[in-house]
């Protein structure tokens, strides 16, 4: 989900019907090679080696900066690889009772939970599965705080703040736009915090750089810094895209260490989501038909943008395709068409070296973060399977979906 129009770049080999291979060279001596002809279509496929590379970097930041970095399920909740993640990172953040329960059952610990609003029906379960609960408003805190004091285990309460500053350029992902429903402004707090608030939480970044955090911290400190001596922890939210090529990791560590030195009593928490799964996997699809309408050729796929890649339409953004590029004169050009009945279920255009035919594979790049968790069953279209490409060059099919999965979503 590229909030700031980030260009996702990889080196690719030309598309081939016989052998479709993806090569990534983070390190010259550690190439990842995936033969996509071994993978069923449609299918989300995660590369474990690339995931471990991201996790290694994230753990390094955590250790050097002496902060807590936790996984945001809203961006990546593929629990079949939680055993891998637990080797590097122990904790996670949840945005709902379902995510909190997933943290408890599959990550093996209670979640740091924040939701824009809690219901009376679900809040007891939120408490059961959470170690930290952050409230979006003072009224929600006042309503639910008595229950937190009666929980079976200690629950640390926090308050989401709105510094009224964000470097995010896309309004859809900007939580600090005028009239935002997210977070408490400094004017609402004045010079005090309610008794029982242990921490403050801000989330203003989205696939951002280290300098964006630095600018945000300046705004947060200017408006809320006088309250820091009354809290125990500060959650800096997500959007720290530290695994993206070109991200200044050393600057991030310096920013965090400098801030920590100024407020040594605060536990600092970061909860990125995209950074964990950034460029770790693809969505494999197949051309089923080619439609030509007044010279516009559309490759009809066995996947849907509306159902399986909704962020492409929400943002909107154009994903990269293995072996394809921007339209070039003299090369075959195609739109990619989804298999739902929504008229706008398409994205285009791409150039290919050869004309596309039914049976050709289309591999959409970088589809593991956000994209996979936002899929739907609109039209009842077949949901992509989920698999893992293991470091020994072996594909493991983790899950297939069928009629019962669709039926159980309805009544």
From TrEMBL:
It catalyses: carboxyspermidine + H(+) = spermidine + CO2; carboxynorspermidine + H(+) = norspermidine + CO2. SUPFAM superfamilies: Alanine racemase C-terminal domain-like (SSF50621), PLP-binding barrel (SSF51419). One of its GO terms (molecular function) is diaminopimelate decarboxylase activity. Residues 142-367 form the Orn/DAP/Arg decarboxylase 2 C-terminal domain. Substrate binds at residue 311. Keywords: Decarboxylase, Lyase, Pyridoxal phosphate, Spermidine biosynthesis. GO terms for biological process: lysine biosynthetic process via diaminopimelate; nor-spermidine biosynthetic process; spermidine biosynthetic process. Its cofactor is pyridoxal 5'-phosphate. Pfam families: Orn_DAP_Arg_deC (PF00278). Its EC number is 4.1.1.96. Belongs to the Orn/Lys/Arg decarboxylase class-II family. NspC subfamily. NCBIfam families: nspC. This is Carboxynorspermidine/carboxyspermidine decarboxylase. The lineage of its organism: Bacteria, Pseudomonadati, Bacteroidota, Bacteroidia, Bacteroidales.
């Amino acid at each position: 989900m590229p909030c700031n129009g980030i260009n996702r770049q990889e080196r690719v080999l030309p598309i081939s019907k016989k052998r479709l291979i993806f090569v990534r060279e983070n390190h010259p001596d550690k190439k990842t090679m995936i033969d996509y002809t071994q993978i069923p279509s449609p299918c989300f496929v995660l590369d474990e080696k690339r995931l471990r590379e991201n996790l290694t970097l994230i753990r390094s930041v955590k250790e050097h900066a002496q902060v807590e970095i936790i996984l945001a399920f809203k961006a990546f909740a593929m629990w079949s690889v939680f055993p891998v993640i637990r080797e590097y990172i122990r904790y996670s953040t949840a945005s709902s009772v379902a995510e909190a329960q997933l943290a408890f059952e599959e990550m093996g610990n209670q979640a740091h939970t924040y939701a824009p609003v809690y219901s009376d029906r679900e809040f007891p379960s939120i408490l059961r599965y959470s170690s930290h609960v952050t409230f979006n408003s003072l009224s929600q805190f006042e309503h639910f705080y008595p229950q937190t004091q009666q929980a079976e285990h200690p629950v640390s309460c926090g308050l989401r703040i709105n510094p009224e500053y964000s470097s995010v350029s896309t309004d859809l992902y900007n939580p600090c736009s005028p009239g935002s429903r997210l977070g408490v402004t400094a004017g609402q707090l004045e010079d005090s915090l309610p008794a029982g608030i242990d921490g403050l939480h801000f989330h203003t970044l989205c696939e951002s750089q280290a300098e964006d955090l630095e600018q945000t911290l300046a705004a947060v400190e200017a408006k809320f810094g006088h309250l820091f001596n009354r809290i125990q922890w500060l959650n800096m939210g997500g959007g720290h895209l530290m695994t993206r090529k070109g991200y200044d990791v050393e600057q991030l560590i310096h920013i965090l260490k400098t801030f920590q030195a100024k407020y040594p009593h605060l536990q600092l928490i970061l909860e990125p989501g995209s950074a964990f799964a950034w460029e770790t996997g693809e969505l494999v699809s197949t051309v089923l038909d080619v439609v030509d309408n007044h010279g516009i050729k559309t490759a009809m796929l066995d996947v849907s943008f509306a159902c399986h890649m909704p962020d492409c339409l929400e943002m909107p953004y154009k994903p990269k395709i293995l072996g394809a590029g921007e339209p070039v004169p003299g090369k075959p050009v195609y739109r990619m068409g989804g298999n739902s009945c929504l008229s706008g279920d398409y994205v285009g255009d791409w150039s290919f070296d050869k004309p596309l035919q039914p049976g050709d594979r289309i591999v959409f790049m970088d589809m593991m973060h956000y994209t996979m968790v936002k899929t739907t069953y609109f039209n009842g279209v077949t949901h992509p399977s989920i698999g893992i490409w293991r470091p020994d060059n072996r594909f493991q099919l983790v899950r297939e979906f069928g009629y019962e999965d669709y039926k159980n979503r309805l009544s």
